[in-house]
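Table S2 (text version). Query chain:
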Amino acid sequence: MSTAIRISDPLANKARIQSRVFHRSLSGQIEYWAKMGEILEENPDLSFAFVQEIMVGREQVNAGDLTPYQFNHED
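Corresponding structure-token output:
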């Protein structure tokens, strides 16, 4: 279910620009910002870049795009 909300014109313009850069819809860009904000508020010790890497990793797992990590064992 979707809900209509009002946002300021400056925020909408920034989101529109970012959505074009990252090939997202306008609502997709705002949802991305909201999700990142939620995660970062709940985890203030994590960096934005680290959270992005986690999100990319989760999507790779969901897509089945996995590469096993090979530990360097010395015998």
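Notes on Table S2: The chain has a mean pLDDT of 92. Residues 26-42 form the longest helix (17 residues).
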